[in-house]
Write a structure and sequence with these properties.
The N and C termini lie far apart (about 105 Å). The protein has helices at about 1-40, 50-60, 75-80, 85-90, 110-120, 140-150, 165-170, 250-260, 365-375, 385-395, 415-430, and strands at about 100-105, 125-130, 155-160, 185, 215-220, 235-240, 265-270, 280-285, 290-295, 295, 300, 310, 315-320, 345-350, 380-385, 405-410, 435-440, 455-460. The strands form 3 sheets. It has a 14-stranded parallel sheet, covered by helices on one side. It has a two-stranded parallel ribbon with strand order 8-12. The chain has a two-stranded antiparallel sheet with strand order 10-11. About 30% of the residues lie in helices and about 15% in strands. It has 11 helices and 18 strands. About 30% of the residues are buried. Helix 9 packs across helix 10 and helix 10 (about 385-395) packs parallel to helix 11. By secondary structure, the chain is an alpha/beta fold. A hairpin with a 4-residue loop joins strand 10 and strand 11 (about 300). Among the domains are: about 1-40; about 40-85, no CATH class; about 100-230, no CATH class.
Length: about 475
């Protein structure tokens, strides 16, 4: 009797245990099946080793896609860290991804602190933009700015954009030191009211030293007393000098030029000086590349004239962007100012497409004027509008030592082949052949055989960075 009771008791408790075991087994099988299906559907790139992912992240970060919209969720580090948990763990432990701090988007102090922590000890790129978020008030900015200034020993790049109190922001940097700072960019393109602000007299910024500072890019002019030490600067770019903005006095601009003994690349869009004295002279002892941009349009017809008073004994490349006949007419005046470029060997002329132009570009007479002023050109690059240059090379013996002619872009490049053929034949007949011709962006229908017997062709790409021209 007792045995029967014991058997019933065991059976009563064993059946549920079997059910639980069976349920657990089915659950585990279902989990393994789902995991297998998920692994089959997830791209293999999501399961790459950390070392490989870090290499991919570095390439994506250093060469971002220019077609991504300018929204916070499309930043490289944010996008990469939201793909999967594996990618997020990898991204959070990769300091390079967090070394670029956007003040104006990540305006919260907590976000800035997180970037500073995740970036480890890597050099920082600081980008300040007041238009990006209206929520970034001046008190919030000052709190973040002071926090970032405590990390100035790590600054590598600084950009200040659309700051209505630009001079006040720069004043914080008077006695600062930035041992790793290499580049400064000041962009107030969207804030024209800055031209109405009278800067308070200040001392120069970064007086503590910035020994690695090599490049400055300015939208508009900054008073001379706001500039940092410039003895080691090699690249200076005035992105845009609006005609309605106050210009520098000649003495102030000459003082700036004299403080640039190591400058090798200079780019100027617009005119930095309002009036030049008769004996004006601007000496650039180390300048190699000079690019000048004319601002032609309905509201502005202003081109740099300072180059007429420039002396650059080492200048090798002159780049004229959006220049017209009227912009170089002073070179025809034998009694007027003339640039002194004894080593000039490369000339670049670049025009906008016809659909974007407000007036015609260079004529053949303009190229002849340039050939008279600079007779030793060995490399001529013509971008977008080739006919005037081809005409000048065909009908004159100017630039007899030209070794290379480069033609880039233009909608009618395939139709210019007959003019190219005529120019080459004419130069050969006069004993002035051009040893090398470069044609970039050649259309598929370009009849190569027309010029194959006259010149060695080489396909080239348009230089992306003006500082890379022939240097």
């Amino acid at each position: 009797m007792a045995q029967q009771s014991l058997n019933r008791y065991i059976k009563t408790f064993t059946s549920p245990l079997k059910l639980v075991t069976l349920w657990d087994t089915k659950h585990d099988c279902r989990h393994l099946k789902c995991k297998r299906l998920r692994n089959e559907r997830v791209p293999p790139i999501s399961r790459l080793p950390v070392e490989v992912l870090c290499m991919i992240f570095e390439i994506v970060y250093l060469e971002p896609d220019p077609y991504w919209p300018d929204l916070p969720l499309t930043w490289t580090e944010i996008t990469l860290s939201h793909v999967s948990a594996h990618w997020r763990r990898t991204a959070l432990h990769m300091p390079l991804l967090w070394s670029r701090i956007f003040v104006g988007w990540t305006h919260a102090a907590a976000s800035t602190e997180a970037y500073l922590k995740r970036s480890g000890r890597r050099p920082l790129s600081i980008i300040i933009n007041f238009v990006a978020k209206a929520a970034l008030t001046r008190p919030k900015f000052r709190a973040i700015w002071h926090r970032l200034m405590r990390e100035m020993s790590r600054w590598r790049f600084l950009e200040i954009a659309n700051d209505e109190d630009l001079y006040g922001t720069l004043a914080f940097l008077e006695d600062a030191s930035a041992p790793l700072l290499e580049e400064i960019e000041i962009n107030n393109e969207e804030y024209d009211a800055l031209m109405d602000v009278e800067p308070t007299p200040r001392r120069t910024i970064l007086r503590g030293g910035a020994p690695r500072l090599k490049s400055i890019d300015c939208w508009g002019l900054i008073p001379r007393n706001f500039w940092p030490p410039l003895s080691g600067l090699t690249m200076l770019q005035f992105t845009y000098l609006p005609e309605e903005w106050p210009s520098l006095q000649y003495a102030e601009f000459a003082s700036l030029v004299n403080a640039l003994p190591a400058l090798t690349h200079l780019s100027v869009e617009g005119e930095p000086v309002s009036e030049y004295p008769r004996d004006a002279k601007l000496v650039f002892p180390s300048l190699l590349v000079l690019r000048m941009t004319g601002t032609h349009g309905e509201e502005s017809d202003h081109v740099p004239r300072f180059w007429l008073y420039a002396t650059a004994p080492l200048l090798s490349t002159l780049h004229l962007l959006q220049y017209h006949d009227s912009d170089i007419q002073e070179l025809r005046n034998p009694y007027g100012p003339h640039p002194v470029f004894p080593s000039l060997a490369s000339l670049i002329t670049e025009e906008l497409d016809w659909s974007e132009r407000m007036s015609p570009g260079f004529s053949a007479e303009a190229f002849e004027t340039l050939a008279t002023a600079f007779p030793s050109i060995k490399h001529l690059m013509v971008m977008n509008e080739h006919d005037p240059a081809l005409t000048m090379l065909s009908v004159t013996d100017r630039w007899p030592d030209t070794m290379l002619v480069s033609l880039w872009g233009g909608t009618n490049l395939d139709m210019d082949i007959f003019k190219i053929q005529k120019m080459l034949r004419t130069r050969i007949a006069r004993g002035r052949p051009i040893p090398k011709l470069c044609i970039a962006n050649r259309p598929p229908t370009f009849p190569m055989f027309f010029v194959r017997n006259y010149v060695a062709l080489e396909l080239i790409k348009k230089p992306v960075n003006w500082g890379d021209f022939f240097c």
